[in-house]
Design goal:
heterodimer; A: 234 residues; mainly alpha; Four Helix Bundle (Hemerythrin (Met), subunit A); 75% helix; 0% strand; elongated; disordered N terminus; B: 103 residues; 2 domains; 3 helices; flat
Chain lengths: 234, 103
């Protein structure tokens, strides 16, 4: 009798409004608290990012080894990259890191509109970066700087230059792939954010996706000087 | 939630610092510093990456365990690069082996 009253009362309080979901956020049963669950999630993301450091570390090591072997050839090859576009893209990516940080900030305060706006801005800046990158790649094809049968470079540095451009496409290609994945993740997050999935007491997906996006920014922070800036005085 | 909310002022200060450092690294590459061009470029890149990790990625406000994980990652990367490069970088010290690269 009393239980049926309680059930009826409970039903009466149910509002299937999406915006209310986060007010009823409860942590999973295997965690002691929402705080512990949040720390476990971010720690898991950091561990994934450490595996990513080692993943990119392999190509970075290959770069260091071959640059040690062919310093002059790498210098001449590097001078065929467009410094202006590289610097512009660096600024664009740093700006996208700022908008991502602002998105995390908005989600911590539970501001849905701002969160959606900053996620859209971050995606827009990421797309600008990829657009410039595509333009640079196309230019390399026209200049016969893509490794393979059509590669052309003045001797005596042709062999070293081909290794440089192999590394250039491998490193920037892997980096661009990570950005495409990052933008894909943000499309999902933006839809979820617009539907009110995140509030001030639950925004872990925004935070850990932010960690991923900043990590991709850091990879570029190293790629830019290594590929565009080093050995400009050969 | 007990997580630290970083103020907007900090975010914009870090953003401006990253932009200035980007301009600085481009300017430094214009000057012929010999072998120190690489050192300067890498030092600025490490500084920029540190700012991103500490403030944008909130490491500064994270538990010790997170620092341990990040430190382990950087340590393993250093091992990978330094142990592999120990050979090429020291080849001509004693001149008992052919110079690097072996063709």
């Amino acid at each position: 009798m009393s239980s049926s009253v309680a059930t009826a009362a409970h039903r009466g309080h149910q509002h299937p409004v999406a915006a209310e979901v986060h007010h009823h956020f409860h942590h999973q049963h295997q965690f002691d608290s929402a705080e512990q669950q949040y720390e476990a999630s971010t720690l898991g993301m950091w561990i994934f990012l450490v595996t990513e450091i080692m993943f990119f570390g392999g190509v970075f090591t290959a770069y260091v080894q071959y640059r040690t072997a062919f310093p002059e050839g790498f210098g001449h090859a590097s001078n065929h990259l467009d410094l202006t576009l590289g610097a512009f893209n660096t600024a664009v990516l740093i700006a996208s890191s700022l908008t991502m940080a602002l998105a995390v900030h908005a989600s911590q305060l539970g501001k849905r509109g701002r969160l959606v706006m900053y996620l859209l801005l971050t995606m827009a800046l990421g797309s600008v970066f990829l657009g410039v990158k595509a333009f640079e790649y196309a230019h390399k094809f026209h200049e016969h700087l893509v490794p393979g049968p059509h590669f052309q470079f003045p001797e005596p540095h042709a062999r070293a230059a081909q290794i440089f451009f192999s590394l250039y496409f491998a490193m920037t290609g892997l980096h661009a792939l990570h950005m495409v994945i990052g933008i894909g993740i943000m499309v999902v997050l933006t839809v979820q954010a617009a539907r009110g999935r995140f509030g001030h007491n639950y925004h872990t997906p925004i935070e850990i996706s932010g960690l991923y996006w900043h990590f991709v920014d850091i990879i570029w922070i190293f790629l830019f000087p290594l590929l565009y800036l080093i050995h400009r005085h050969v | 939630m007990s997580e630290h909310i970083v103020s907007l002022r900090v975010y914009f200060t870090i953003f401006m610092s990253l932009m200035v450092l980007t301009a600085l690294t481009v300017a430094a590459s214009e000057v012929d510093l010999g072998r120190f061009n690489v050192a300067v470029a890498m030092a600025i890149a490490v500084l920029k990456a540190s700012l991103v990790v500490l403030y944008f990625m909130h490491l500064r406000y994270s538990p010790t365990l997170t620092w341990l994980v990040v430190g382990t990652g950087i340590g393993c990367l250093a091992l990978l690069i330094l142990l592999i490069m120990a050979d090429p970088w020291t080849r001509d010290w004693l001149r008992v082996a052919p110079p690097f690269p072996v063709r």
